[in-house]
Write a structure and sequence with these properties.
Keywords: Membrane, Transmembrane, Transmembrane helix. This protein is of the alpha/beta class and about 290 residues long. Helices cover about 50% and strands about 20% of the residues. Helix 2 crosses helix 3 and helix 4 packs parallel to helix 6. The chain binds ligand C2E and magnesium ion (3 copies).
Length: about 290
């Protein structure tokens, strides 16, 4: 029996699942309660035009304000939300909140600071038969133009099957834009780009880390730079926008700019922040524009 239990655990822990079932059930129950009580908030990380150093949009990132555990980051609860299916109502909340907030900023600050606004979307949501209707309703209720909504999907999410492909094409036909997140980390990035109606690729942070050491000629830095260059060339050929993720210093920003990246995201440019902080940033930029 011990051996069997050991084997069961082995399966659990190696299938990319870091928590056993019991903990899932408990955290799942807390997630459900947290959703009912409104404990989730959305923060926004600015997307920055690297040449002009201006905000042109935001990525929406969820946070859980747990009554006893404090603020919990998505890495600690999204996997459980996905396994329990709670990502569907949670994702719907983030989607609706992002559209509502983006429409407010669009009205207040104009289209130059709000060219793109988007939540991350899990594969479970793409399999939800109501997903396309949810997106349509979120746009209609908020008044946000569909072209401004960018849904961030990972390659592994997009890879799966006919139904997902149909959903993505329906969204594309509605004018909603699709971004391939963490690009370069998946298994078949190139073939995927042909089949998938993406308009944006987001170069994963792992290719940005250390890219500034290129001059020193370390093999790792050279390899990252080669990937960054290949991605921007590919994106150019396929007429896709690119965003470089996880920029942590000016040297990285400058190098990516030189490689042709015009959009970036990262702690060096702007951290994820509350809606009030985003509004203050956008207001400051409007004054600069007017001056
Ligand atoms: P992501 O979509 O790739 O989001 C970028 C993550 O990198 C965010 O972490 C952001 O805070 C962090 N980041 C941004 N700039 C930097 C930087 O310069 N350095 C470093 N070290 N990190 C940076 P966060 O908010 O903890 O989110 C982690 C992941 O959780 C996201 O990765 C996304 O996959 C997932 N996620 C977040 N919110 C949601 C959501 O509402 N729904 C779903 N399905 N997934 C979400
Ligand atoms: Mg993302
Ligand atoms: Mg990302
Ligand atoms: Mg990422």
């Amino acid at each position: 029996a011990a051996k069997q239990r050991g084997k069961a655990n082995w399966v659990r822990f190696t299938a990319g699942m870091e928590r056993p079932v019991v903990a899932d059930a408990q955290l799942g129950a807390e997630l459900r309660r947290g959703l009912e009580l409104g404990e989730f908030r959305v923060v926004y990380q600015p997307l920055v035009d690297l040449n002009r150093r201006q905000v042109i949009g935001v990525e929406a990132l969820v946070r859980w304000h747990h009554p006893t555990r404090g603020v919990i980051s998505p890495a600690d609860f999204i996997p459980v939300a996905e396994r329990t299916g709670l990502i569907v109502p949670l994702g719907r909340f983030v989607l609706r909140e992002t559209c509502r907030q983006a429409a407010v900023w669009l009205a207040e600050f104009g289209p130059s600071v709000l060219q793109k606004a988007g939540p991350n979307v899990s594969v479970r949501q793409l399999h939800d038969p109501d997903f396309v209707d949810d997106v349509r309703a979120a746009l209609a209720d908020s008044g946000l133009p569909g072209e401004l909504l960018v849904l961030e999907l990972t390659e592994s999410a997009v890879l799966r099957g006919q139904q997902v492909s149909r959903t993505l094409h329906e969204l594309h036909d509605m004018g909603v834009r699709l971004a391939l997140d963490d690009f370069g980390t998946g298994e078949s990035s190139l073939s995927l780009l042909r089949a998938f109606p993406a308009s944006i690729v987001k170069l994963d942070k792992s290719f940005v880390d250390g890219i500034e050491h290129h001059e020193e000629g370390t093999p790792e830095a050279n390899a990252r730079q080669a990937v960054a260059r290949a991605v921007i060339q590919l994106a150019g050929a396929l007429d896709l926008d690119t965003v470089a993720e996880g920029i942590e210093n000016e040297e990285q920003a400058a190098r990516l700019q030189r490689l042709g990246y015009s959009l970036g995201q990262g702690f060096h440019l702007a951290e994820p922040m509350s809606p009030d902080e985003v509004a203050a940033l956008m207001a400051g930029q409007r004054e600069l524009d007017a001056a």
